[in-house]
Amino acid sequence: MQSTRFHKIVERYPALRIAVVGDFCLDRYLEIDPARREVSLETGLPVHNVVNVRPQAGGAGTILNNLVALGIGALYPVGFAGEDGEGFELQRALKNLRGVKLDFFLQTPQRRTFTYCKPLVLASDSPPRELNRLDSKNWEPTPEPVQEQLAAHFREVSKVVDAVIVLDQVDLPETGVVTAKLRQAIGSQAKLQPSLGILADSRRGLAGFPPVDFKMNSRELGALTGNSRELPLDQVRSVAASLARKNGHNVFVTLADQGMLGADAEGKVEHVSALPLRGEIDIVGAGDAVSANLSASLAAGASLVEALELANAAASVVIHQLGTTGTAGVAQLRSLIEVP
Asked: Scanning 45, 77, 264, 295, which has the fewest C-beta atoms within 10 Å of its C-beta?
């Protein structure tokens, strides 16, 4: 990417307003010092001594963290937290992020706070090693009043932002933020505001989502379009182009070590190759960095291929950050993709 184009895109970031809608969770890292390992006198089991607790916003919060790192001017999370200790930590983490406004974020006693508790062994002579994770989730459907409030918040925030990112993070349908009621609100608002960029991603696939910009991996693309196996690159190109023309919106497909592909509403396809590895990697958070950079760059006037280049670089930055769910800032992106 030429230097002038890079600067023209990123210099617009401070003026952007972006909403992140979806399942915000608390990533609670328990940093363990293996040199202080003990054995419990009561049970005879090993004791892992935690020397530091590091809470940060995860799930949709990881997208938010990346947007903060990019210098986006105003950020509006739309989601919920419970009235519990984890909810207090999550909201504190969100409040501490620059530019984040919690006007549309709901705290409710009817939900518990989605939490990933991640024990992390930090040894001086080796990379961080994560032990078995301890998760806290909601197992019952999101109550109707909560769904209605979230749908109303989505409709309100859509009127004041330049772009929206939607992340469906839960494994069990209808237990999180992105329920059928919210998807219906997204579809209605997309018709009312056709110029508003809405990017959707779901770990369970995008079946049932209204036509907006779709972001997925090649396996999810295959499942969405009736293919039971992972698609080869040439077929990904044709299937993504067909889906983009059908929906009238962009389709973005992450391809792991083959990079990333995008198709626009006319069926034009662009592909960028993955950047070389620069050491040990951890892929956690890469997809969220991609979503943040696609949405921000498109809202700032980037072309399809420019948005792919920026998102691809962000993924490369994040996968080389070990022991955390990382982010990519403008300076880091510049070092990977800017051409004088």
From this structure: 45
Which residues share a beta bridge with 194?
none
The answer to whether the pTM exceeds 0.70 is yes
Residue 256 DSSP class: G
pLDDT digits (tens, 9 = 90+) for 199-240: 999 999 999 999 999 999 999 999 999 887 778 899 999 999
On whether residue 33 sits in a domain, the answer given is: no
Kindly report, residue by residue over 141-181, the tens digit of the pLDDT.
999 999 999 999 999 999 999 999 999 999 999 999 999 99
- Domain span at residue 305? 3-24+54-117+139-337
| φ, ψ dihedrals at 220, nearest 5° | -65, -35
Which CATH number do you get for residue 258? 3.40.1190.20
Residue 325 lies in a domain: yes
Q: What DSSP state is assigned to residue 166?
A: E
Q: What contacts 64, CB < 8 A, 6 or more positions away?
A: 20, 24, 57, 75, 77, 94, 97, 100
Q: 170-205 burial, b if ≥16 CB within 10 A, otherwise e?
A: beeeebbbbbebbbebbeebbeeeeebbbbbbbeeb
CB neighbour list of residue 207: distance below 8 Å, 6 or more residues apart: 223, 224
For the cut 70, the answer to whether the pLDDT of residue 263 exceeds it is: yes
**CA angle (324 as vertex; 322, 325 as ends), nearest 5:** 110
Residue 133, both tokens: 């994770």
Cα-based distances in Å from 149 to 104, 142, 152, 313, 325? 9, 11, 5, 37, 29
In 34-189, DSSP assigns E strands to 38-39, 46-47, 50-59, 74-82, 105-108, 115-121, 129-130, 134-136, 163-168
